[in-house]
Amino acid sequence: RVFLRAVNQFTSVLNHFFLDPANFELQLWNNYFHLAVAFLTHESLQLETFSQAKRSKIIKKYGDMRKEIGFKIRDMWYNLGPHKMKFIPAMVGPILEVTLVPEPELRKATIPIFFDMMQCEFNFTLSPSQQLWGLGIPSTPRPCWGRAELGWPGLAVHPCRLLEHCRKHKYLAAPGEVFALLVSSLLENLLDYRSNMHDESREKCMSCTVNVL
After folding, report:
1. Cis peptide leading into 89, omega within 30 of 0?
2. 116-137 in b/e burial notation, b at 16+ Cβ within 10 A?
3. Gap between the Cα atoms of 146 and 181, Å rounded
4. CA nearest 99: which of 18, 46, 22, 155?
5. Comparing C-alpha atoms, which of 191, 212, 111, 94 is closest to residue 159?
6. Helix/strand/coil (H, E, C) string of 60-128?
7. Structural domain spans, the chain
8. For residue 136, which of 192, 187, 175, 101 has the smallest C-alpha distance?
9. Angle, CA 91 vertex, CA 123 and CA 18 arms, to 5°
């Protein structure tokens, strides 16, 4: 809780002194986002891994601190304004880690950031389909990635909600839908491969490998 208060102080300082174009500090903001994500995904905050009694006790005394800092990450992202392009695609991975935390409100708040990234690229430099190259799952799972979350049901919300946002956009409706469906298909193949990579059936392993390729 003390650490969370310190991070909240950092947000205030960054917004007041290091946000305007004349004083913007890329490294400070980059460090902030990675610090906040590391805090949010820390093993000691993953309430789903605790017993019901311990979970209830922590929530009663401290609340779910992941949500508090997750909402800060969201707000700080949108505060960046024209500086957002400096963090794309580098922040795709860290934000993905946040959305893998099995907390509905946190996911609802942070998944739209992906669509915002797509809009930034569409408006300034890249085609939205090129965002796919930055949308990777880190090779080393974080403690917050519960067993269920590494399965398809846990990740399904990402392309589905992305698709909802795309369909409401005048210019991204068609290419955005193609992209969201492509991500959905790729995730399905990757997760199928991951769950069967140690299967005794050589044919099944090869089939999953071919699908990914």
Report:
1. yes
2. bbbbbbbeeebebeebeebbeb
3. 25
4. 155
5. 111
6. HHHCCHHHHHHHHHHHHHHHCHHHHHHHCCCCHHHHHHHHCCCCHHHHHHHCHHHHHHHHHHHHHCCCH
7. 1-113, 153-212
8. 187
9. 85
* Dihedral angle of Cα 123, 126, 127, 131, to the nearest 10 degrees: -110
Residue 57 has pLDDT above 70, yes or no: yes
**Residue range 85-139, pLDDT digits in tens:** 999 989 999 998 898 888 889 988 888 898 899 888 888 764 444 454 444 444 4
Q: Name the CA dihedral angle for 96, 100, 103, 108, rounded to a multiple of 10 degrees.
A: 40
- Long-range (24+ apart) CB contacts under 8 A made by 79-87 are 79/15, 79/19, 80/19, 80/29, 83/19, 83/24, 83/26, 83/29, 84/116, 84/117, 84/120, 85/120, 85/121, 85/124, 85/125, 86/26, 87/29, 87/30, 87/33
Query: For 163-202, what is each residue's pLDDT tens digit?
Result: 777 788 878 888 888 888 888 888 888 888 888 877 778 8
- In this structure, the number of other CB atoms found within 10 A of the CB of residue 184 comes to 18
Q: Residue 145 gets which letter from DSSP?
A: -
Q: How far apart are CA 62 and CA 4, in angstroms?
A: 11
Whether this prediction's pTM lies above 0.85 is answered by: no
